[in-house]
Specification:
The structure holds three protein chains of three kinds. Chain A is of the alpha/beta class. Chain A is built from 22 helices and eight strands. Chain A has helices at 6-12, 22-26, 39-47, 69-73, 80-95, 99-104, 107-114, 118-126, 128-137, 154-160, 176-182, 184-196, 211-215, 219-238, 248-261, 268-274, 280-289, 310-313, 320-325, 351-371, 381-391, 398-405; strands at 169-174, 199-202, 242-245, 277-279, 303-307, 332-335, 376-378, 395-396. Classes of the chains: A alpha/beta, B alpha+beta, C alpha/beta.
């Protein structure tokens, strides 16, 4: 069926399902709540009962967090999570989009609003009565870990930053909304680490990749955002310049999810960009394979837990962060076996899903608590905020660990 | 030996026979309906599910087309629950002559069939998997009809009016007193017991087997040509509209979305006997190739099951054999044996198509009423069948939506087709059957992609408890179901379905080891073609 | 990055090879397009159950089978190699964090364990949690306990059939269906129940339900739900509280014992420095002549190459899409395009009309030489450093013979041995320690 629209290809993959239950054994959500009947059920099974133009009434589908673990473990090649996401968009279209979802799906809008007034915004967001009101009115759980506004943007820093003269290669940095408004320091560290290893970093103007919009079913808006982003990044792709990203979920969006789920196979810019996008650890590991990475790391006598976010695993590249951190003397890294921390982007923020998100992550949180005070390492910002909120311990991006060990 | 009495004995539990029973019951006749197997195991249960708009006949057989136009509307009313308003398309593929479309349009005009020519782009928007090279497209009011639901609604409706329905009762002799037919002798195929039915009137609605029954009554020269056709059910809806090829009716020219599957059909080969319905490799390949014309990539899609049905094509002995069974009339034939053979109280109805079941039933019951000198009008055109009282047509998402309400309260047994435990147990009790295949026909148990791979063991375990069967009988039922399902799978066992079958082999044989559990097959039907040549098919 | 060995597939065959190699210092990369059949199969080690009569002693029977069927994988291995592999697996389990959970059994005499439908099934080895169900020479009556919420297991049917299957002799069996102690879901699966059984309070409630309902001498059989992380604790606690032997019976997927086995082997791979990446699908070889340099993989939308000295193909046969039959009745190996053996001629039947009969397609797979290298129609190796293991092999009908686990385990283990003998480890040794775990 290769001559068919990209998104239909996802649906057609339901033919491969042999009902083996493997996806169900791995689904973090259905394993903690009966409200979600499981990926096999809402994906390839229910899809046989769905008609394109007819409304959708299977509300239980909404409990799918979109973590994508089901697709990864399926031995038959069913694009389960992608089918679910598409079906959920249809469900939302039928029943309308909540104001909450419209808000939290637009991080740049929130970012632009919150950044100038960061101190007040952050104070408000920590204020219990305010959070209670937000929960009641908007539907974001009062205890959901929302990040702090940094009060400045990474873009601004990048504009003022001059790259060193000597560089063997260059990359374009797709930093994502999280870095821009909430973790600009991570962006700085990324640039510094790359420059330290002889890579010049260009930071193009950029906006959201549209992933939260896609996860929340607002496909048309998601398409607009991802296309705009592709337009900004495609000049680099066409020049053969690699595009690296520190938000592993956003890079996956560009690598594959936008094309598969939003049916954008005809978007030439996006296709060109998608072929040149790399997760930052993936990129650094490739540099290491070629002998281009500086491995004179200072020892870090710490014990951390590394959690590969569900969407990092969706890249199918193994866990390069583990391999990189293994180069740092003294650093003990315990690998978490959890498939998902629970937050799955914006899922765990929602009032009706927060409890589920906490149950999903319970095992991981326990492992981190038992490991000691040094906290965890994780490649996705929404995961880090959720994990830090639940464990009270720091959660950092692998780049931060490498940056420190590089003595920068 | 048991003797039963009734006003009317209806022989044949397909759509026609069940329709006759319903019609009789509504007119106040005490009716017995019999079938040698389960209801609708003959022709009715083996067609693709098309509720004809008539479009397939507007050029070649305008009378048939007019009938369809008319009956289509009635069936949608009275049997709403069994009909899905899929709509239909007639499309000119790159291999077809676009000029035929004009003849088609003309035929629609002449027969009153509503149609509209739309652009190929519009057709592709509606059905994205269609051949992108189609040149012309017309819409028609085709629908798809669930024949199991229909036949059981007719039978249950008749039963609610006092009729008795006897499945697995084969007619082994027609009773006569002089020139009056007064019923039949039946044999219970599961127990071997014989039953006599004394009926004031007998209606032979046994379709492709009508000649056998008529001969048993002493009528000569009745010939029903078995026109075999195979159909393949594809795992999911490749299309949601019925798609017809815009040509003179030919093989493999229709793809019908019916419930959760789409069915590609059909071939047309004269068979020697209505029970001899081999599925050949050539036919399978032909269907797949024909399907590719309509939906490129169909060969890569998953085929679930193939089966052969037999069209009852009545031949008037006076005109002799015809070369192609397709050319023999598709309109139904009613044999008035009083006129023809001097036999009273016996009528035969055969031929026809499922869409006109109600009309066929009406015609024959009217004829019976006339022969009896009574005045009882037909009410089937206005009376909704059980389940269709609200006149809401079936929608594909029905089961999925209903399941939402019982997610936390009802255990799901057949996951592919969303059959819950409560419904399953109720059906087992209601039918009082040990045959899981009967349940399959009622509930679609095991009709999804895994073809019972996961639900068969569960159902056997539940049957064991509900029916208080002993272990070997429950296992026998499981083995019987395994074999029935294999029958339809193996000729199209490739690709994804082979993966499924192999996984199921690992489960049934490797894990459960069903081959080494004592199995008692008593009370289960043997294959109809067991007496004919062995089924070794290349 | 170059590995010593790439293993394609993460079922028992692939993991057996991968773990053995990694433990000897080879740099191992296990690539799999998804999880393997560990999660679906019963996790007993079925070596040879029927040939076609019931096999008492696999040791003997393997020898006979090898002579009678020279194309069978066991003909490439011999009973000694199978025995070694089984002993190796037992050691792995015994040395794992899940100890004292262990496998028992060997090739001398098959156990006879009940299946979920009540068949007495011969198997060579099984976890300790299943052993009390052995039907050999044990006439103690059996009480099979199931749960209404677990539709994947039917205790009364199982018990009745078990009694009938033993034809009046042996152990009488009866069944009881309980409601799960804590009213939670109406629809459970084995994994959900296994998790709950790891809670001692839940176990206590279950024991309470059975109090007074069990007869004096009865041993108790449950579906295979006796814990995921610590099955020995769950099982021995139940035995202790019920004061009688307890055993579990494998049933429909998800297979809890299979998931345990996966956890053990996956953990052993990780501990030995092996890597596993789930997601990439191997779609072709990178080779010149009989020299394979690596494999082409599809990762998401990209096609990349992974290089290795050796490749072990453990792709699971037709069930997992490792071998493919298309609608034109052409069959192929989806990973490396290796030739298949045993295929019926074009036009000849691939299947017969009776389900339980021998099917022509059953034995189709990749034929190998004594070094487990894939061979062509002339019997010559297609590649020097490729080994084929497990269900993708030609010549067996594992689900009928009850030989699947034995074939997967033994060929996987043997492939590792052969690679090590061919010098497959040293290159990776130093680097593996450097990146150590």
């Amino acid at each position: 069926m290769t001559d068919v629209l990209g998104s239909l290809l996802m649906r057609e993959s339901l033919d491969h399902c042999v009902k083996c239950t493997i996806c169900e054994t791995f689904c973090p959500v259905s394993n903690v709540t009966p409200l979600f009947p499981g990926p096999k059920y809402v994906g390839p099974q229910a899809e046989r009962f769905r008609v394109q133009d007819e409304p959708s009434f299977d509300a239980s589908l909404d409990y799918c967090s979109g973590c994508g673990v089901c697709t990864q473990v399926c031995p038959q090649g069913v694009h389960i999570a992608e089918i679910n996401t598409q079906a959920r968009a249809k469900l939302r279209e039928t029943h309308g989009f909540k104001l909450r979802d419209r808000l939290i799906a637009r991080p740049t809008v929130l970012g632009r609003l919150g950044t100038p007034a960061a101190p007040i915004a952050n104070f408000t967001l920590e204020n219990k009565p305010f959070r209670l009101a937000v929960e009641k009115v908007v539907g974001v759980h009062r205890d959901a870990a929302v990040p702090k506004f940094a009060g400045r943007t990474f873009q601004k820093w990048a504009k003022a930053h001059t790259a060193p003269a000597t560089a063997q290669r260059r990359v374009a940095y797709f930093h994502g909304c999280g870095t821009n408004y909430y973790e600009p320091r991570l962006g700085e560290m990324t640039v510094e680490l790359l420059e330290h290893n002889g890579v010049a970093v260009e930071v193009p103007k950029q906006d959201c990749c549209g992933l939260p919009l896609q996860s929340n079913g607002m496909f048309d808006d998601a398409r607009k955002y991802v296309h705009k982003l592709a337009e900004r990044l495609v000049p680099y792709a066409r020049q053969g310049v690699d595009i690296v990203g520190t938000s592993t979920s956003c890079t996956l969006m560009l690598k594959r999810e936008a094309l598969e789920i939003l049916g954008l196979e005809d978007d030439e810019e996006l296709v060109a960009v998608s072929a040149r996008v790399f997760d930052i650890c993936e990129y650094l590991r490739a540099m290491h394979d070629r002998g281009e990475l500086k491995t004179d790391f200072a020892p870090l006598e710490e014990q951390v837990v590394y959690h590969a976010p569900c969407q990092q695993q969706g890249h199918g590249i193994g866990k390069p962060a583990l391999e990189l951190m293994a180069l740092i003397p003294g650093l003990e890294v315990a690998e978490s076996d959890a498939t998902c921390c629970g937050v799955a982007g914006t899922y765990g923020l929602k009032t009706e899903k927060f409890g589920i998100a906490m149950d999903v992550g319970a095992g991981l949180f326990r492992q981190i608590a038992e490991a000691g005070p040094d906290g965890s390492v994780c490649d996705s910002e929404t995961c880090r905020w959720h994990i830090a909120g639940a464990t009270g311990a720091r959660s950092v991006h692998p780049v931060e660990v490498l940056h420190r060990a590089s003595g920068l | 030996m048991t003797t039963l009495q009734a006003d009317v004995l209806v022989i044949g539990g397909g759509a026609t026979g069940a329709g006759v029973a319903w019609d009789c019951a509504l007119r106040g006749y005490d009716t017995i309906l019999v079938d040698r197997r389960d209801l609708a195991e003959g022709t009715s249960g083996r067609f693709h599910g098309l509720l004809h708009s008539g479009g397939r006949y507007v050029v070649k057989d305008r009378d048939a087309a007019v009938e369809c136009v008319h009956e289509n509307a009635i069936v949608r009313r009275v049997a709403a629950d069994t009909v899905e308003d899929t709509g239909g398309l007639f499309v000119t593929t790159p291999d077809d002559d676009p000029a035929y479309g004009d003849r088609f349009a003309e035929g629609c005009r002449a027969t009153g069939l509503p149609t509209e020519e739309i652009s190929p782009a519009a057709a592709l928007k509606r059905e994205p998997l269609l051949n992108p090279g189609i040149k012309r497209a017309f819409t028609v009011p085709d629908g798809s009809i669930d024949v199991w639901k229909l036949v059981w609604a007719l039978a249950n409706g008749a039963a609610a009016h006092g009729a008795r329905v006897l499945t697995y009762h084969k007619v082994i002799g027609v009773r006569r007193e002089g020139d009056v037919v007064c019923g039949a002798r039946l044999r219970n195929e599961l127990s071997g017991e014989e039953v006599d039915v004394e009926a004031a009137f007998t209606i032979n609605a046994s379709g492709a087997w009508a000649a056998e029954v008529a001969t048993m009554a002493g009528c000569e020269g009745v010939h029903v040509a078995p026109g075999k056709g195979i159909m393949i059910a594809m795992n999911h809806r490749l299309v949601n509209t019925v798609v017809n090829r815009l040509i003179m009716p030919a093989d493999g020219d229709i793809l019908v979305p019916i419930r959760t599957v789409s069915v590609i059909g059909t071939t047309d080969i004269r068979s020697r006997h209505a029970d001899e319905l081999p599925v050949t490799q050539e036919e399978v390949d032909q269907m797949l190739d024909d399907g590719e014309r309509l939906v490129p990539g169909l060969r890569a899609a998953r085929a679930l099951r193939v089966w052969a049905g037999v069209r009852p094509l009545f031949e008037d002995k006076k005109t002799g054999d015809t070369a192609s069974t397709r050319d023999v009339s598709r309109s139904h034939a009613m044999l008035d044996h009083l006129e023809r053979d001097g036999l009273r109280s016996f009528l035969t109805i055969t031929g026809g198509k499922l869409t006109t079941y109600r009309l066929m039933a009406q015609d024959i019951v009217d004829a019976m009423v006339r022969q009896r000198g009574e005045d009882r009008p037909c009410r089937t055109a206005e009376t909704p069948l059980p389940g269709s009282e609200d006149r809401e047509q079936y929608r594909l998402g029905t089961r999925l939506r209903a399941r939402e309400d019982e997610l936390q309260t009802e255990q799901i047994i057949c996951e592919c087709e969303l059959v819950g435990r409560g419904r399953l147990e109720a059906a087992m009790r209601r039918r009082g059957t040990v045959n899981l295949d009967d349940i399959r026909r009622n509930l679609r148990l095991g009709m999804g992609p895994c073809q019972g791979g996961f639900c068969m063991y569960r159902a056997a375990g539940i049957l064991h408890g509900v029916d208080r069967l002993d272990g070997p009988h429950a296992t026998g039922s499981l083995r019987h179901f395994l074999q029935e399902r294999w029958k339809g799978m193996w000729p199209v066992l490739y690709g994804d379905q082979l993966r499924q079958a192999r996984l199921d082999d690992w489960i049934f044989q490797g894990l459960l080891d069903v081959g080494h559990v004592p199995a008692d097959l008593e009370g289960l039907p043997t294959p109809v073609d067991a007496e004919l040549q062995p089924a070794t098919l290349a | 990055m170059r590995h010593d060995v790439i293993v394609v597939g993460t079922g028992v065959a692939g993991l057996a090879a991968g773990v053995r190699l990694a433990q000897e210092g080879a740099r191992v990369l296990v690539l799999a397009k998804g999880i393997g059949a560990t999660h679906l199969a019963g996790a007993t080690v079925d070596v040879l159950g029927y040939d076609p009569a019931r096999v008492e002693s696999p040791e003997e029977a393997i020898g006979r089978l090898a002579s009678a069927q020279p194309g069978h994988p066991y003909a490439r291995l011999g009973a000694a190699a199978v025995g070694e592999a089984l002993a190796w697996l037992r050691d792995q389990v015994a040395a794992s964090p899940m100890a004292p959970y262990a496998y028992e059994g060997g090739l001398a005499e098959n156990l006879l364990l009940p299946t979920a439908v009540g068949a007495p099934k011969p198997t060579a080895a099984a976890p300790v949690t299943m052993l009390a169900g052995d039907l050999r020479r044990d006439e103690r009556p059996i009480c099979i306990v199931g749960f209404r919420q677990l539709k994947d297991f039917h205790p009364l049917l199982c018990a009745e059939n078990l009694t009938h299957a033993q034809a009046g002799a042996g152990a009488a069996a009866r069944g009881i269906e309980l409601d799960l102690p804590v009213s939670g879901r109406v629809d459970e699966n084995a994994q959900g129940i296994a998790r709950q059984l790891e809670d001692p309070v839940f176990r206590g409630a279950l024991v309470q339900q059975l109090a007074g309902r069990l007869q004096l001498n009865e041993r108790v059989g449950f579906p295979a739900v006796l814990g995921l992380q610590d099955p020995h604790a769950v099982w021995s606690d139940l035995e202790h509280r019920l004061a009688r032997p307890v055993f579990e019976i494998p049933t429909l997927p998800p297979s809890v014992p299979g998931m345990r086995l996966y956890t053990i082997l996956r953990g052993a791979l990780r501990a030995a420095g092996g890597r596993q990446v789930i997601g990439p699908e191997v779609i072709g070889p990178v080779a010149s002549g009989t020299r394979l340099e690596g494999v082409r993989v599809r990762v998401g939308r990209r096609e990349e190459v992974r290089y290795a000295e050796h490749v072990v193909l453990a792709t699971g046969g037709f069930a997992s899409g490792g071998l493919v039959l298309d609608s034109s009745w052409q069959a192929r190996d989806a990973a490396l395009g290796l030739p298949l053996a045993g295929l019926p001629e074009p036009g000849a039947p691939r299947f017969t009309s009776r389900y339980l009969d021998d099917q022509p397609m059953s034995r189709v797979g990749i034929a190998v030489d004594d070094e487990l290298r894939p061979v062509d129609a002339h019997g010559d190796p297609v590649y020097e450093k490729v080994r084929v293991v497990g269900a993708s092999l030609a010549g067996a009908v594992p689900w009928k013979e009850k030989s699947g686990d034995g074939i997967s385990l033994a060929t996987g283990h043997r492939a590792a041995e052969l690679i090590l003998a061919a010098g497959g480890a040293p290159a990776g040794l130093t680097t593996a320690t450097q990146e150590g775990r």
